[in-house]
Amino acid sequence: MSDAVIRVEGIGKRYQIGERAQQGALLRDVIAGAFRRNGKRSSRDAIWAVRDVSFEVKQGEVVGLIGRNGAGKSTLLKILARITRPTVGHAELHGRIASLLEVGTGFHAELTGRENVFLSGAILGMSKAEITRKFDAIVAFAEVERFIDTPIKHYSSGMGMRLAFAVAAHLEPEILLVDEVLSVGDARFQKKCLGKMEEVSRGGRTILFVSHSSAAVTRLCSRCVLLNAGRVEQDGPAYEVIGAYLRDLTVTSASRHWDLADAPGDSVVRLRAVRARKVDGTVSDAFDIRHPIGIDVVFDVLQGGHLLAPNVHFFSEQDVNLFITIDSDPEWRYTPRPVGRYTSTVWIPGNFLAEGSVVVRVAITTLANMNIRLDKSDLIAFQVFDSLDGDSARGDYAGHLPGLVRPLLKWSTAYEPERNDASLLNSAVSDEYVQP
Fold first, then answer.
1. Contact present, 271 and 297 (Cβ < 8 Å)
2. What's the pLDDT tens digit per position in 86-112?
3. Torsion 316-318-323-326 (CA) sign
4. What is the distance in angstroms between the CA of the first residue and the CA of the last residue of the chain?
5. How confident is the model at residue 126 (pLDDT cuts 50, 70, 90)?
6. How far apart are the C-alpha atoms of 182 and 9, rounded to whole Å?
């Protein structure tokens, strides 16, 4: 038998556009509706939110569901949570299930924070004893200790969301269905929520996680299912599926140029071209991880007398800022640029970036007052690949290597046969770092 705790087979959900519920409807409304349709129901009025979806999730797996808006992610979770019935197909879930599909379920504005913790916890399936046992941890996590006996209607929206997430985050189910809950609160609290989700995932629970944050999905999930127009388009390791999804959303060309009339910028400076190239000048969409990568930024200065600094921002395929580099050419660092065309080139050394997609953003700033003259995102993109020849940081390892960068660092190993523990302790104190 399979050890899957979630099994989805041929699930489909169809909605009738414009259809109203007929339960309790008056006879005249039913007849009128039939006349409006001329006695027919057009198949064009029906849409499939989810169509022929099948997959399995094993015990302890953390699986991400990703896709564009309207791809069917939330509909699928509602089917698995038994909130809505599928039109076709079926799903099996084995174990205690908790659904975190909407932050704030069960909260009442007139009740205090304390009362809402017990109410929401009960709705989410927690017993009174369980809520009592976890109450202090829930309140501390939400950071609302001073206001816990104040009615929720007096909370700010952020405070209410924090308390709602804290209740849901302290559930202890065997299967957890999560839909875009990490968007609550400010950036600091979002990081705290993400840490809590990581803690849950390390506890061996099975999680199905929907989020538009590719960084969060990559951090939490080992596997991803990509939905497109209600169907499964790809299912595999998270880094592969997310990479394919983001490459489809972003630019793929390694070179772009503009006519002066269309060029981004202002009356002082205009961006004319950006390109990724090899040492020999060849523009390329793919670079060997071991070789340098040059980024050319071509711009026209239309008005002289400004200290202008081109800067390039590099992002991973998970939309994580890898690093920023600013033109530090001493010739122009303290010298206002006269009118003319400039080509500034920055070189990324070989054995620095990890393999994957890299997206480039360019800005040009006036250093005197930090005025941003132009700021253009997702201009070009290129791929970094590891040739598996064994002379990169990968060595002879053929599996997936995570990380944002992959530098080739110097290693050294000292071997001493039959060395005892006492000498090992002494070496830990006396060994000195030797500059490579």
1. yes
2. 999 999 998 878 777 766 666 888 999
3. positive
4. 55
5. confident
6. 29
